[in-house]
Write a structure and sequence with these properties.
The structure is a homodimer. Chain A is of the alpha+beta class and about 180 residues long. Chain A has helices at about 85-100, 150-160, 165-175; strands at about 5-15, 20-30, 35-40, 45-55, 60-65, 70-75, 75-80, 105-110, 125-130, 145-150.
Chain lengths: ~180, ~180
């Protein structure tokens, strides 16, 4: 019962835009309850990278985030561009644009959901080691501060509230747990 | 620069509903870029509970989640009802309704953001220990399966992909790290 999908009787979009769309589904649940409308947020997949540089430091970015209306220290990353199916390529592009770091060794680590109840997209974690500094190319709307910390310090930030993004708390603890170092 | 908030020139709601609202803000970033519209998802705060029962087992719930269109194994919890400012009380209500577990000792652990870029609300983690079983009271739309696992098994589920909800990966690793046991 818990695994049985809902039946969608009617579906329409209240908004379609490049980075965020909102779908309204009229649903009947497995228990026969009517849930109408149920709103689903559609967005491109999110791709984030837990990168350590040649000094063994974790590369984080600090920026203003308008949803929460304040600064947030996060893993580099962003939305997959349309047609961008290779999460490692997306992660490498975002890391280079946001921080200037390139090179190193790369591997996908996890494919999760940012919010299974409301979000239809996926969030990917990619791990990079041994990246080297270079010139960043932030977008015009981005004001990013690059912050490098030791893996232990990154874990402390995640555990003690220095990382406010709950998804990134998970990705940092996940990514550094799997660290072979 | 990275901490400087955007200026909101105009703001309106495309949708206002009980569980999800969508706001469109016309913004100027700290770098002077025009971001119009920028969509913000508004929702009640989410409250989740990492509860261990009198046998020391972690209480999880498995249910169909319509955003991702499949089942998800998660921490019990849900939306704070209107005017429900006490996160421990919300967590205790959700745990009782979804799983029947009550009693035990409770403490708030973390106040994070489910997605600082797009979500205006907060996600709270509450820790409960020594909860005891009783009758559940799921809502008519809910079909929940209660799953109890050891803390080690919960960590393995979070690390190895058995937990698809990235926020809950973080909350589980966070909550069990802080476990005094």
């Amino acid at each position: 019962m818990a695994d049985r999908p809902w039946t969608v009787r009617r579906s329409r979009h209240l908004l379609r835009s490049r980075w965020l769309s909102l779908r309204a589904d009229d649903c009947t649940t497995a228990t026969g309850a009517d849930v109408s409308p149920y709103y689903v947020v559609e967005a491109p997949d999110f791709v984030h990278v837990l990168a350590t540089d040649v000094d063994g430091l974790v590369v984080l970015v600090r920026q203003y985030r308008h949803g929460v209306g304040g600064p947030s220290l996060e893993l580099p990353g962003g939305n997959a561009d349309e047609g961008e199916a290779d999460v490692v390529a997306t992660a490498a592009r975002e890391l280079r644009e946001e921080t200037g770091f390139t090179g190193g060794r790369w591997e996908p680590v996890a494919r999760l959901s940012p919010d299974p109840a409301r979000y239809a997209n996926r969030v990917h974690l990619v791990r990079a080691t041994g990246v080297v500094p270079g010139p960043a190319e932030p977008e015009a709307s981005e004001a990013l501060e690059v912050v490098r910390v030791s893996p232990d310090a990154a874990i402390r930030l995640a555990v003690e509230g220095g990382i406010v993004n709950a998804v990134h708390v998970g990705l940092i603890l996940l990514g550094l747990r799997a660290d072979p170092a």
